[in-house]
Amino acid sequence: MTTTPEPPVSSLPVREGETFESLNPRNGDVVGVHPVHSAEEVDEAVERARLAGVWWREIGFEGRKEYLLQWRSVITRRLAQLVHLVHLETGKPHGDAQLEVGLAIDHVHWAAKNARKVLGPQRVSSGVLAMNQASSVRYNPLGVVGVIGPWNYPVFTPLGSITYALAAGNTVVFKPSEYTPGVGQWLVDTFTEVVGGRPVLQLVTGFGATGAALCDAGVDKVAFTGSTATGKRVMAACAQHLTPVVIEAGGKDAVIVDEDADLSAAAEGALWSAMSNAGQTCIGAERVYVHRAVFEPFMDELLRQARELRAEADPDSPLGPITMPTQLPIIQRHIDDAIERGGRVVLGGSDAVGERFVQPTIITHVPEDSSAVREETFGPTLVVNPVDDMDEAVQLTNATPYGLAGSVFGKRRAQSIAERVRSGMTSINAVAMFAAVPSLPFGGVGESGFGRIHGADGLREFTYAKAITRQRFKAPLELTTFARDEKTDKTVALLLNLLYGGKKTIR
Ligand code: NDP
């Protein structure tokens, strides 16, 4: 059977002169009004970014470091302002918003401080055949990077690309989610203030079509965070121009609890990972696999801690609303499917899904083929299933097309279990701590995407490697000349044989 491919999304129409409102998901209040940028306006922003890139590259690692560190300080000094805006546009409590911004600040600091060391010229060994060469590699900026951000962590996530791209010497055009344009505006405004109004980091706002226009605007790389489905569309649009992409997509992360785990810590970690930010976290736990020997005491502990947790309209209730209303029916479907297939509700349940808020829901013994186990739920729900041993835990954890992150709680076997989980990131005896370590790469495998933000890999992601050899002296064996004679060829063959021809016993 042949299928008709979807038209490239970059052909979506973008009308000029429109605006849209960002709304407070707690109560529907208007937080701000923003333009819907047209494809032409996106093109113009990319053009301005290209021109600004000349200056941004010229000031070098040290100059960029100074500006980025100034920006870090501005964000830190105005923390309360940004935190409140994140709270208004996403609905998350202030404390969670502050944690998010705090982690992002640490990344700005790290990227600024480490860009030269990671990307600057480095000498490498030339080997025997090219021993007369001095060899070096450096990592050059790509040019203009388009960043398409999500709404769930509207500071931490896009800054994971923006900061690293800027530190590497690129300029950036940023398209935030339609749900969090005000946060995007705040970030761009403060950076622009620091660099004296130069368009090094610019904002374009609108809906999916504006993001699609950015993919089509001749940028040198696109960094996308969002759903796997949209990630595929972004990749298809970028393929038209051979524009490279880094995709940070969804996940179905699991927490594995071994029989020798600290059950109280495991329950606390799993609960926070699953429920904080109302479960709208790409690296949040959606499944828990618990060794059968400790299943009952683990559940007792989990329920003891979860029972008081409520999602409420109070601005600082630990669980906020579901930011994106279209997510509510998806969460409902996953809960209902799990129950219909025999899952046992121990907290919340089918009526947990309200108009704006979803109450914490925990279901055990959920069949592995249910949507609550297979698909990203992105709500405050948790599936907890017992397993016979840790082999089964690893096998079930890995039996999903996603591979973003996860946690292991245990003692003796925790390290080896973590190593066997097919995912980009794992925390042992804690949750999500890899995100708080700026020197570690962040990203997934399979349907969770590819490429890395954060750390040295995150800096290199926004560069191309440039290799240079410099001839230091005339070689005893001239290889790259028509004057190369039979004697030289024989000497090369002899040399190769001496170097690599020895017999190796394979044990
Ligand atoms: P999307 O993947 O649709 O959106 C992410 C970003 O891509 C937004 O800025 C969006 O803009 C933009 N976008 C949408 N369509 C296009 C396009 N054709 N070309 C370029 N950019 C585009 O995610 P949603 O916000 O709709 O959330 C859907 C689901 O994705 C969630 O329920 C969750 O499961 C998952 N998700 C995962 C995230 C993660 O961290 N991995 C983050 C967010 C969502 P706009 O918002 O204006 O449409």
Describe the structure.
With 507 residues, the protein is an alpha/beta fold. It folds into two domains: 24-248 and 454-464, Aldehyde Dehydrogenase, Chain A, domain 1; 253-430, Aldehyde Dehydrogenase, Chain A, domain 2 (3-Layer(aba) Sandwich). The protein is built from 16 helices and 18 strands. The protein has helices at residues 39-58, 60-77, 79-90, 94-119, 156-167, 181-194, 208-215, 228-239, 263-275, 295-306, 328-340, 371-374, 390-398, 414-420, 455-460, 486-500; strands spanning 19-23, 30-35, 122-124, 133-141, 144-148, 171-175, 201-203, 221-225, 245-248, 253-257, 285-291, 344-347, 361-364, 381-387, 406-409, 427-428, 449-450, 463-471. Helix 1 (39-58) packs across helix 7. Residues 9, 148-152, 175, 177-178, 207-208, 211-212, 215, 225-227, 230, 233-234, 248-250, 282, 324, 327, 376, 378 line the site of NADPH dihydro-nicotinamide-adenine-dinucleotide phosphate.
